[in-house]
Amino acid sequence: MFKRMSSMWIAAALMCGTAFAAEIGLTSVLYPEGKKVDVPIAGTQRAPASELSAVVENRAGQSNIRIKYKGLQPAVLFGGDFVSYVLWTVAPDGTVENLGGIANDGSDKGEAIFSTGQRDFAMMINAEPILGVRTPGDLVVFFSGTPSTKGAKPTGFTFGGLSTREGLVTREHESIAGMTYKVDKKNPLQLIQAEKAIELLDRFDAQRHDQAIYDKAMAAILEAREAKGQARIDASKQVVIQASQALRKTARMIEAEEAAALDAAATAQRVALAGHASGLQQDLAKTQAELQSTQAELRSTQAKLDQTEARLRNTQSQSARLAGQRQALNSQLQGAMGKMATGTKTERGYIVSLSGTAFGSGKATLTTDAKYVLAKLSGMLLAMPGAALLIEGHTDSTGGDELNQKLSTDRANAVKMYLSEMGFETSKMGSQGYGPTHPMAPNDTAEGRAKNRRVDIVIAEN
């Protein structure tokens, strides 16, 4: 009995989520109607060295998302139970939506198309054991950044709804950075995913809850094992779909069983209370004593309520002081950067611009003065727990486009790395190089080119 209940609990936890403990800084974007928006996709420290980008277009109340990837290594490299990538949308209020899997087959490049009724959202790509999970796990591999398209309104926020599934499913690697998957035509990724789905069905006793779907999944896996080529891939996909259906039904039935058990416990408690009331009616003296005790508890509760109101008033006073401190912090941020950096308040957030003198000519190495400025900035940022950064590198138009693109990217990464060394969380930072494509001034004068050689640190605070 204990073993069966343990399997039921694990299946529900896998499908519905366990304790929410992990957090990540994200940037939600309110997408303009009828305009295609290019969205940068950044990798976390556990991500492979892949190139991802997204294009989002909101039209007639529907947001269409096209994810393009190059060199994306499959999720099976994490090992254990993790075999799939899932795209999630996350709204600023914490609402999440599973848009489906990215069917990466180990090839060099590809794309995936999704659709959602949401308009204001951030995106995450997570490694998951199965495609049909209802809450995102804490194995975040990629996340969306801030687009440069005019009219797209970004909002930085912290998302605390990542489910920790430790003890429920296994993984062999926390990071697959630098790892490469070797394609095996005899054992395609789709078959690996199908075999893992069948293993989860057996582990979580799904057969007991839906024999018909379980039998279909078993028949499909036998067909997949015997088939070859495209037929094997198609049969494997059917296994994953049927297994996800079986696990979802298993989770729903477990929830129903738990609700029934709670109802039975409540009924037993009501019967016990009725018997207790009967005993109280037979003993008026005892009833009077309990009434007096209840009155004393009420007086104690009132005293506690009075204390709570006093604490609330004190909390409101503290909130007002914190607001004043935040105003003073913003003033410091505007005045502490010196000649090497300038600060500007924009719709995207507060932008700190490091001039080209922060680096050696044609190099991506920070000067001592630049490190001093960034050290001061990191101290201020650590007092802003809701801050999220997008670090953007820019150059003037002199030199080749390929060289400028690399230089701008390297400089943005150098700033990101130094802020990380100063204690700011890497997961709350994204970096992007734009080369000469976003000038602040014409490039036909020395003064204009000097303005264009910069690194912008966009500070968005929820």
How would you portray this structure in words?
The protein folds into three domains: 160 residues, Immunoglobulin-like (Sandwich); 52 residues; 126 residues, 2-Layer Sandwich (60s Ribosomal Protein L30, Chain: A), CATH 3.30.1330.60. 42% of the residues lie in helices and 25% in strands. The chain contains eight helices and 15 strands. The N terminus is likely disordered.
Describe the structure concisely for a colleague.
The chain is an alpha+beta fold and 462 residues long. The chain has helices at 2-16, 189-203, 211-226, 229-281, 284-335, 368-381, 401-421, 446-452; strands at 20-30, 36-43, 51-59, 62-70, 84-90, 96-101, 109-116, 120-128, 140-144, 153-163, 341-346, 349-355, 387-394, 429-433, 454-461.
CATH hierarchy, class of the largest domain:
Mainly Beta
Q: How many strand segments?
A: 15
Instruction: Count structural domains.
Output: 3
Number of helices: 8
Round the mean pLDDT to the nearest integer and report it: 81
Q: Can you tell me the CATH topology of the largest domain?
A: Immunoglobulin-like
Extract low-pLDDT stretches: 1-13
- Compressed to H and E, one letter per element, the order equals HEEEEEEEEEEHHHHEEHEHEHE
